[in-house]
Amino acid sequence: MKNIMIAGTASGVGKTTISLGIMSALSKRGINVAPFKVGPDYIDPKFHKFVTGNPSYNLDSWLLDEDTVKYLFKKNMKDKDVGVIEGVMGLYDGFGVEKDMGSSAHISKILKTPVILVIDGKGISLSSSAIVLGYQMYDKEVEIKGIIINRVSGERHYNILKTVIERDVGIPCLGYLPSNLNISLKSRHLGLIPANEVIDLQEKSDELAKIIEETIDLDEILKVAETNITENNKIDNTINGKKFGLRIGIFEDEAFSFYYQDNIDLMKKIGVEFISISPLKDEVLPLELDGLYIGGGFPEIFTNELEKNISFRQDLLRRLQEGLPAYAECGGLMYLTKSITDLEGKKYDMVGFFETDSLMTKRLQRFGYVEVEYNEKISIRAHEFHRSKIQDNSNIEYVYNVQKKKEGKKNKEWKCGLKKKNVIAGYPHIHFYSNNDFLYNMLDHWEKVKTFV
């Protein structure tokens, strides 16, 4: 099972560009690439899927225990030639100050996956050796098998850095990208602009793959790619006994696209049939539905379009009021409130199912890993990342007790998870494999109220 991790010394060093380029170049060689992303990111995996044609999966050692990480990795590697894992932040950066928790390094150790370290070569020469040596020495259980140098001034500059790194540290340099690379992906407030909004993405992908073939030794990367993890079937055994005959509508368009692929796969595995729905384009909901899965995304970017689709909003409101179950996260929660107010104070009408309003803010309201207690009996780990808030009032019923911890101690605590009729909506993004009971409890309830309205 051949796998490699592309990790960086820090955020912004170029690991996303290099990861995408390697995935694209390998795919163009006819290699079936399994893409992965360390951490809770939703946007990078969409780019992975675009360049490889395969779904990309998140690997997160804070949300999931080690056995689950191994299980999901092996499951999602099935029938693939090579796995390429894009790291998160710097190689050793994870949750708080804990050394092995949520970092790229931790995932590499769990999966025994070799690491290709991306460093920034701009403005340095011998100092590059000190950087690489520090990363090598910090945790010798992490197998750094190669170096890629980004933003070098040219081949001569790269050869200088290659000479000193290989001489002083003994790790081979496998290539570079030039500083004048005219390929960039634009960002907005929650990260990169999603792949489905990048008009010239195919051209950029093709050009990047061509450059990677010229400046990075892909053959050597394939030689060092390997992993050896043990089988673990206990998770399969807990899943196979569950079956739900439910038809669930899933919101999928430019406004709503934040879903863990493993969540969708798990729901399909236990019998859920998905029907794709676009609140931007559809006039009404499909008639035969047992529930709705409304993910996060960028409803605040598409407020005008969402507001104008009055027929869909009215139909959705009626169906929810009649008892159609729904589960919504972050942007999905915002859409179900009465309105979204932008930073200029302009208010846009939304569905109006929950008696509150969503307000965009200039700074992040919540960011990071949280622990969610649902209905006072189910504990599950999650992640929050949003620049909006909802107005609190007495008409809201909450079913989430959310805690944020530092160094194992409770740091903050608040209420979330709005509940009304058969609808639950909250800001936390939940990975169902963190605790399958959360999903099973919800779907059990949906089957009990199963209705076609």
UniProtKB/TrEMBL annotation:
The record marks 429 as: Increases nucleophilicity of active site Cys. SUPFAM superfamilies: Class I glutamine amidotransferase-like (SSF52317), P-loop containing nucleoside triphosphate hydrolases (SSF52540). InterPro entries: CbiA/CobB_synth (IPR004484), Class_I_gatase-like (IPR029062), CobQ/CobB/MinD/ParA_Nub-bd_dom (IPR002586), GATase_3 (IPR011698), P-loop_NTPase (IPR027417). It comes from the Bacteria. Residues 4-184 form the CobQ/CobB/MinD/ParA nucleotide binding domain. It catalyses: cob(II)yrinate + 2 L-glutamine + 2 ATP + 2 H2O = cob(II)yrinate a,c diamide + 2 L-glutamate + 2 ADP + 2 phosphate + 2 H(+). One of its GO terms (molecular function) is cobyrinic acid a,c-diamide synthase activity. Keywords: ATP-binding, Cobalamin biosynthesis, Glutamine amidotransferase, Ligase, Magnesium, Nucleotide-binding. Residues 247-436 form the CobB/CobQ-like glutamine amidotransferase domain. Pathway: Cofactor biosynthesis; adenosylcobalamin biosynthesis; cob(II)yrinate a,c-diamide from sirohydrochlorin (anaerobic route): step 10/10. One of its GO terms (biological process) is cobalamin biosynthetic process. Its cofactor is Mg(2+). It is an enzyme of class 6 (ligase). Its EC number is 6.3.5.11. The active site is at residue 330. Comprises of two domains. The C-terminal domain contains the binding site for glutamine and catalyzes the hydrolysis of this substrate to glutamate and ammonia. The N-terminal domain is anticipated to bind ATP and cobyrinate and catalyzes the ultimate synthesis of the diamide product. The ammonia produced via the glutaminase domain is probably translocated to the adjacent domain via a molecular tunnel, where it reacts with an activated intermediate. Belongs to the CobB/CbiA family. Catalyzes the ATP-dependent amidation of the two carboxylate groups at positions a and c of cobyrinate, using either L-glutamine or ammonia as the nitrogen source. The a and c carboxylates of cobyrinate are activated for nucleophilic attack via formation of a phosphorylated intermediate by ATP. CbiA catalyzes first the amidation of the c-carboxylate, and then that of the a-carboxylate. This is Cobyrinate a,c-diamide synthase.
